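Human
Can I borrow your eye for a moment on a structure tokenisation matter? Give me a protein, with the fold worked out from its sequence. Write it directly below this note and I will take it from there.

Assistant
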Amino acid sequence: MLLWKCRDTVLRVDERPLIMGILNVTPDSFFDGGHYLDGNNAVTHGLQMAAEGADIIDIGGESTRPGALGVSAEDELERVIPVIEELTGKVNAVISVDTMKATVARRALEAGARIVNDVSALSHDPAMSDVVRESGAGVVLMHMLGSPRIMQDDPRYEDVVGEVTDYLKSRVEYLCGKGLDRNTLAVDPGIGFGKTVQHNLELLANLDVPGALGLPVVVGLSRKSFLGRLTGRGVEERLVCGLAGLVFCILNGAHVMRVHDVKESWDAVQIVMALNQERKEKHVAVD
């Protein structure tokens, strides 16, 4: 049994893959930047994702695309808090806040969020570990090489799978030493965050390695540039190749898929679940 404790909610990530819908309240995210900067549009889209099957809605007010510059905590708060407040209580989906700032995380948790998704694995802001420990929030610890502004300049590894896993393991051990409940932690290899196409492929092909940490594995590959480099498709045309990656990931150890296209992703998950169930029943019958 694998549980993910997120404040007063416990997610059974071993029963089926979960869908984390992306809601960027930003002007400059790589795919949907500017689409949901207006709060009303953001709330409407959040409601739509929940209706389409999102288990988690991940709300972010600061772009972390390659080359992105940071924004102030004030701007981030102004973007995300009203959306979290509006969605809380109106959707069954768990609300997550995508931030590296403790002040934003604290206010988001007060507004109803249950998960903090931190691309710096709680290393950017020294106060972040106290915020999540005190709240009991679920946490996504992601690996990133450098910062969003420079992470894709020339990423290099001797052994990307081993190095990423070792980093995540060290962060888990450090944070548990700071008093965080291990059952609140999930890990994300950080596809596209300081990785070449080859690095991304190696990580995705070996999800069982970070999976051996015994924590939920979160993967975000939706619409990302490495899919375009492999297929020649622009960002608007990457739905199908992203779904192919999603299916591979959930068959090979991913527990939570972070996606832009909730409806299509949930359709894919349902087919995989049905086929897996049929295979299990067939094996039981033969045995």
Observations:
- Residues 231 and 241 are 8 Å apart (CA to CA).
- The chain has a mean pLDDT of 92.
- The longest strand covers residues 18-24.
- The two ends are 24 Å apart (CA to CA).
